[in-house]
Amino acid sequence: MSSDKVLVGVIGGSGLYHLDNLTFIKKVEVETPWGKPSSPITISALPNGSQIAFISRHGPHHTITPTEVPARANIAALKHLGVQAIVAFSAVGSLREEVAPGHFIIPDQIIDRTKGIREDTFFRGDGVVVHSMFGDPFSGQLNAFVAPRVEKILASTDVKLHTGKTVVCMEGPAFSTRAESIMYRQWGGDIINMSVIPEAKLARECEIDYTLICTSTDYDAWRVGEAPVTVEEVVKVLHTNAGNSRAVAAGILEEVAAHVEAGELTEIRGSMKFACITRADVQPKAAREKYSFILPEYFSS
Ligand SMILES: CSC[C@H]1O[C@H](OP(=O)(O)O)[C@H](O)[C@@H]1O
Ligand SMILES: Nc1ncnc2[nH]cnc12
């Protein structure tokens, strides 16, 4: 069973600017109330006909810094197209010996070390106050669905999958100092990137199930006697990791689409219903109209 709806979105990170095994349908330019996404969104069909939407986080030619990624436009555009689940990819540094370069990680927690300079909510400046639930920042149901499937695909390789890990999201663009890297380990961080915040928060505000499939490129800066991470080191591993990520995407997306279509992702659905503390009758009309772009069920004008 496959539908004409675009239920699954894929966000490609560093090194992952396209996917394999897809039939191109169209590129769509979506203008959202929060601006334009990082790139036109590519709609393609999987071999079974299910459609997916792909966005390249840093743009197709990697021209957008982690701080400048228009995450609100990316997530709003995907939601507006009908996406209910996002499979995002990210290149990460490892804060643990056992997470070697090349390994896959599906984290279940986040430590936010961004600096407050990214727009991390749809609900600011419009007279409507919303507090989303973020204790479990990833979709537990989607993580649980995806992890064994990724593990199965990697089983024939020497690439390991780690689950139950914590990702630290730093501001960048410079990599961490050695002292910071050691501190993140003491805090319980296992891997580090510059992208998961605000993406995960915004997906939650749109009631989209969000999972992050990470690939490790380096050991960051905490290893005594080893040189700290450089872009050169990251890029050396990025190509192999992107190939493995494409194989993983090709292996899981049909099943993810079927899972979403069957209505199996239920945890996040409805979570924003009571997240708005501002009474509907005092919400400005213009704000309601704006928010109906992402949450029409709660904010019709
Ligand atoms: C190229 S190294 C740092 C860069 O790589 C990761 O990008 P993404 O998450 O989009 O794969 C990391 O978050 C940094 O933005
Ligand atoms: N060491 C690192 N720190 C932050 N983001 C990264 N992405 C890949 N490696 C990274």
TrEMBL record:
InterPro entries: MTAP (IPR010044), Nucleoside_phosphorylase_d (IPR000845), Nucleoside_phosphorylase_sf (IPR035994), Purine_phosphorylase-2_CS (IPR018099)
Domain called Nucleoside phosphorylase: residue spans: 8-253
Family: Belongs to the PNP/MTAP phosphorylase family. MTAP subfamily.
Pfam families in the cross-refs: PNP_UDP_1
GO biological process terms held by the UniProt record: L-methionine salvage from methylthioadenosine; purine ribonucleoside salvage
Compartments in which it is found: Cytoplasm; Nucleus
GO terms for MF: S-methyl-5-thioadenosine phosphorylase activity
EC number, as in UniProt: 2.4.2.28
Cellular component terms per the entry's GO annotation: cytosol; nucleus
Reactions performed catalytically: S-methyl-5'-thioadenosine + phosphate = 5-(methylsulfanyl)-alpha-D-ribose 1-phosphate + adenine
Function of the protein: Catalyzes the reversible phosphorylation of S-methyl-5'-thioadenosine (MTA) to adenine and 5-methylthioribose-1-phosphate. Involved in the breakdown of MTA, a major by-product of polyamine biosynthesis. Responsible for the first step in the methionine salvage pathway after MTA has been generated from S-adenosylmethionine. Has broad substrate specificity with 6-aminopurine nucleosides as preferred substrates.
Binding site for phosphate: 14, 57-58, 90-91, 195
Keywords, alphabetical: Cytoplasm, Glycosyltransferase, Nucleus, Purine salvage, Transferase
Keyword Phosphoprotein: no
Protein name stated in the entry: S-methyl-5'-thioadenosine phosphorylase
Pathway terms, separated by semicolons: Amino-acid biosynthesis; L-methionine biosynthesis via salvage pathway; S-methyl-5-thio-alpha-D-ribose 1-phosphate from S-methyl-5'-thioadenosine (phosphorylase route): step 1/1
CDD domains referenced in this protein's UniProt entry, alphabetically: MTAP_SsMTAPII_like_MTIP
Site (Important for substrate specificity): residue numbering on this chain: 176, 231
Subunit structure, as described in the record: Homotrimer.
PROSITE patterns linked to this entry: PNP_MTAP_2 (PS01240)
Gene3D superfamilies, per the entry: Nucleoside phosphorylase domain (3.40.50.1580)
Amino-acid positions noted as binding substrate in the UniProt annotation, renumbered to this chain: 194, 218-220
